[in-house]
Amino acid sequence: MTDTICALATAPGGALGIIRISGPQSLEILSNIFTKDLSKAPANSIQYGHVKDGSEIIDECMASIFRAPKSYTGEDSAELTCHGSRYILNKILELLVQQGCRLAQPGEYTMRAFLNGKLDLSQAEAVADLIASTNQATHRMAMSQLRGGISSELASLRNQLLHLTTLLELELDFSDHEDLEFADRTELQELTRRIQKHISQLAESFETGQAIKQGIPVAIVGKTNVGKSTLLNKLLKDDRAIVSDIHGTTRDTIEEVIDLHGVQFRFIDTAGIRQTTDRIEQIGIDRTYQAIEKARIVLWLVDEEPSESEVHDMMERCKGRSLLPIINKIDIDNRHQFSNIKSPIIKISAKTGQGIDSLEAAIYEAANISILGDTDVIVTSARQYQELLRVKEAISRVLDAIADNLSGDLIAEELKIALESLATITGQGIITSQETLNNIFSSFCVGK
To answer: Which of these CATH numbers, 3.40.50.150, 3.30.1360.120, 3.30.2420.10, 2.30.40.10, describes 5-104?
Structure first.
């Protein structure tokens, strides 16, 4: 934290490049290679000048000045905007290092922001999610967390747990007075259950968060030659999968990502399901069943009425998933009425595109993801999820202890464990290990 660091904050090769400098000597060091004295420049100002190496002008630049604590890192810092030439950028970094800067480590700027109290850990992780966001849903999730959505939720839960702990410890202080009970057990149990429910909802949101970040998995399944690959190509608006009249053309899964209404879906084209003696094709069919297990949504394509046993088998395999039965090839015959399938049936022509808009709307609805707003809280970090599970386990032990009428000191200890795990998520109120910080920030780019 006593070093002054520098790094390129933009990808090289563009029209412009930005170099970030942060630390106690930022403005003095930059002044040494700039045609103006920036050490006295007002905060939140932009200064025009030239970067020089001795008498040689390297580039004309704009220096944005930020002073502690009102900067991203909480330190004196500057952002130097110059032309995007690789030579210019590397030369300026070289000059800064010669004047006393150190090249920043991955994520070091955001780590300093955390250490200086500008962000908590959950917000710092949201910075990486925001940079990696590829659609409206992932952007909104990251923005919600960056604005402190999870932090606010956890702060509310923490206050409730602190209240319970305080009552129990106050009761222990007056343990000589057996007739005094500061923490009513019935009320304590009811409040703990409410907290448990809230924690469970947050933990369960992790699955949705991961699905949104990685793409909601959608398996396209059915018999051979029902049009699965044609449907994938139509959704992609590209000839990605091989289409042929020959049965068993697709022998492995093909995955592609599509954005529907601002949400990313990961479509998986699979091998056709049928009885076969071909060992290679059978491996593909086995992978079809594996794709069903991993999917949140299953598109079941048919072009003729399936038997009752086929319907039963598909319903069993798709338990816990959204199953969308789809009749394909309505351009050939639009009179299909399938009595064996009880679910609402979507009719399409993967070849002509008829009904595709309705299918896309049904897929989006089946994902059961409302348009995320600024107040929606979804857990996206595996680290946060693991800590929430620890909180949930501790709360379950609290409920068991209350039910078994155990002493207040045992209950208080379990509440403290829950509080510690909550604090670990945001990094507030605890001493966060350097190993934990390194794990979080090592995935960041150097300039962030």
So the answer is: 3.30.1360.120
